[in-house]
Amino acid sequence: MKLGAFSVSLAVKDLEASRAFYEKLGFSVMAGEAERGYLILKNDAVVIGLFQGMFERNMLTFNPGWDQSAQPVEGFTDVRDLQAALKAEGVAFAQEADPEGAGPASFVVIDPDGNPVLVDQHV
């Protein structure tokens, strides 16, 4: 199962303080809108998202159809196909994509330890 680009999405209390901290670790902003409460940072192939006031917990994020630089890739598995495969395996969903839709969509599953896993397709 190919889930796409991987990042860790961090629920932060102070976006600017978090940005400054991660820049000291060698990350730089590659996308996002601070005025809307989020920034995406990258250090080599490692991507983290900083999100202030958008969700309660840190989560793992996968982006079908994107590479690690948020560029579209050919031949990816659509989020709805991933969702159907996981449902067939008995995985429970906290949020589902419309199985009849097309294009951008997302779903959330929760791992056995309570960690949310977001699969968020932007293409």
For the sheet with most strands, the description reads: 8 strands, mixed
The count of domains is: 1
DSSP strand count: 8
Average predicted confidence as pLDDT: 97
Helix content: 10-25%
Beta-strand content? 35-45%
Q: Which structural class matches the secondary elements?
A: alpha+beta
Q: What's the CATH H-level homologous superfamily?
A: 2,3-Dihydroxybiphenyl 1,2-Dioxygenase, domain 1
Low-confidence stretches: none
- Coarse morphology: globular
CATH class: Alpha Beta
Give the name of the CATH architecture. Roll
**Number of contiguous helices:** 2
List the helices and strands and how they pair.
Layout: E1 5-12, H1 15-24, E2 28-33, E3 38-43, E4 46-52, E5 59-63, H2 79-88, E6 93-95, E7 105-110, E8 116-121
Parallel strand pairs: 1-4, 5-8
Antiparallel strand pairs: 1-5, 2-3, 3-4, 6-7, 7-8
Can you describe this structure?
Helix content is 16%, strand content 38%. The chain is built from two helices and eight strands. It has helices at 15-24, 79-88; strands at 5-12, 28-33, 38-43, 46-52, 59-63, 93-95, 105-110, 116-121. An eight-stranded mixed beta sheet has the order 2-3-4-1-5-8-7-6, with helices on one face. The longest helix has 10 residues, at 15-24.
